[in-house]
Write a structure and sequence with these properties.
The chain has 164 residues and is mainly α. The chain is built from eight helices and three strands. The chain folds into two domains: 57 residues, no CATH class; 64 residues, no CATH class. Helix 1 runs antiparallel to helix 7, helix 1 packs across helix 8 and helix 4 crosses helix 5.
């Protein structure tokens, strides 16, 4: 199903604080089989949400780029890793990560809203929104952040509340 970002942003404004509190409670007192439940919910969420129709993460967040990502993407673009990082990335000294200089992502096509480097995109993008990472409690802080940006994460929390 295609994502309506206006509707999503309205729901986030209304539920964000409650969802973050709920995830905090789950983190402190995780239910038995949380990882298994998350895997089931993940499958359900992706039947409902068309990630590629949204691209809100590309519009409002930046992935981190590993050295491997930089090598792969720069080779794809036919430039050196140094030229790639100089043109497109900035180094966050505090986090120790390479990140986009701009938002929305420079590789998001402004007309189609598709990633122009999808086949070689950063690992962070390929794994986003990390719904079914093993040891879900290690990723609750990430989900607390992502409910604001990702309709799939938001839907996951709704389903968790229904089920748990």
């Amino acid at each position: 199903m295609q994502v309506n970002l206006r509707s999503f942003k309205q729901k986030v404004r209304y539920h964000k604080s409650a969802f973050k509190r709920y995830l905090g409670k789950v983190e402190k007192n995780p239910p038995r089989d949380l990882d298994k439940i998350a895997e089931q919910i993940d499958a359900e969420v992706w039947k409902e949400i068309d990630c590629l129709s949204c691209a809100n993460c590309c519009k409002s967040m930046t992935p981190t780029f590993t050295k491997t990502d930089v090598k792969r993407i720069s080779a794809h673009l036919g430039v050196t890793p140094a030229a790639f990082t100089e043109k497109w990335l900035t180094y966050d000294k505090k986090a120790g990560d390479w990140m986009n200089k701009q938002q929305p992502c420079q590789f998001l096509d402004k007309t189609t809203h598709f990633c122009s480097i999808y086949e070689v995109r950063p690992a962070d993008c390929a794994g986003f929104p990390h719904l079914k990472k093993k040891k879900m409690t290690d990723y609750i802080h990430v989900h607390q952040q992502n409910i604001e940006y990702c309709p799939a994460t938001y839907r996951m929390v709704e389903k968790m509340q229904e089920r748990l």
